[in-house]
């Protein structure tokens, strides 16, 4: 067998038969099997066994009585039992199109990649299958934050949050993974040095059942990011904190001993700290990314332009809040600086110091660009 399709499931019984049927059509004659790693508490295991008995495609199941690590733990356990050259990880709700499975593997073969990511954010991809505008916004913001925290590891990845990807299991150090929550691809890419390619896909609508996404999963994602690496972001935060303290100190000195109006004091403080922060970021935060294509003056221009625009946008809010509430100007300034921190970090990581891609984007020539079918029940 050349491909094992690893499908982690949790109470997905109504989707099993349709998923296997479409995988049969997509993988006919290709020597493949389907491996369900099941954590269900309903009749899903019985449904998997029923479908397996009549399927032309080999189907097996690992049912975990005491599951650990959530969906990510299920994927890692599944990958540990794969004996084929390739494994394709996908969800069991048919939002990931089974028809794309052979194309992902073929892309990996032609490009010499070890991981092929099915991306919703490449040209030709689409994330509209996510339930509601809020979930799409959260997904996009989460991807940007991850790519900002790991700009070199994820330089070739536009969708580190996807659960749909092909991988060569023998290229991974599975023992190094610390699975938790939903986002196993991020764990794989940040704890392993692998060659990555991408291919666009359209994220479809759920075939049956309800989404398992929740606020708790979001908290686990934040925990995962922090545990993987907080290094670059923490250095950025330290410099930002230093700049914020300097900003407030300069503003206080200008407002009180020198009796300068608080608006002009805020402008001067912003100009001084923007310049100082850029110099410190060049030296201590993004030193390893300074040779990724932008010149020093280009980086400085982008950084100053963004920080200047951000400071200019904050200034009207500062005036409005101080005049409307009578709150101390320095206190209000402190609050606005905290709110702006993440925006500055993402912009600098993804624009000013963004690493260049080192692998081409799929689909590979001569391969069909497969997108998801309408999977509305």
Secondary-structure topology with pairs:
Blueprint: E1 3-9, H1 13-27, E2 32-38, H2 44-54, E3 59-63, H3 70-80, E4 86-89, H4 101-111, E5 115-119, H5 132-149, E6 165-167, H6 184-191, E7 196-200, H7 215-228, H8 231-255, H9 262-284, H10 296-325, H11 329-352
Helix pairs in contact: 1-2, 5-11, 8-9, 8-11, 9-10, 10-11
Characteristic key phrases:
single chain; 377 residues; alpha/beta; Spore Coat Polysaccharide Biosynthesis Protein SpsA, Chain A; 7-stranded mixed beta sheet; 50% helix; 10% strand; disordered C terminus
Summary of the model, kept short:
Helices cover 50% and strands 10% of the residues. The chain has eleven helices and seven strands.
Describe it.
This protein is 50% helix and 10% strand. Strand 2, helix 2 and strand 3 (59-63) form a beta-alpha-beta unit. With 377 residues, the chain is of the alpha/beta class. The chain has a seven-stranded mixed sheet with strand order 3-2-1-4-6-5-7, sandwiched between helices. Mean pLDDT is 82; it is low at 365-377. It has two domains: 3-228, Spore Coat Polysaccharide Biosynthesis Protein SpsA, Chain A (Alpha-Beta Complex), CATH 3.90.550.10; 231-352, no CATH class. The longest helix has 30 residues, at 296-325. It has eleven helices and seven strands. Helix 9 packs antiparallel against helix 10.
Q: How far apart, in Å, are the first and last alpha carbons?
A: 32 Å
Major beta sheet, specifics?
7 strands, mixed
Strands of the widest sheet, in order across it, are: 3-2-1-4-6-5-7
Classification by helices and strands: alpha/beta
How many domains, in number, for the residues?
2
Q: Assess the beta-strand content as a share of residues.
A: 5-15%
Shape by Cα distribution: elongated
Superfamily at the CATH H level of the largest domain? Answer: Spore Coat Polysaccharide Biosynthesis Protein SpsA, Chain A
In the CATH hierarchy, the architecture of the largest domain is Alpha-Beta Complex
How many distinct beta strands? 7
Number of helices: 11
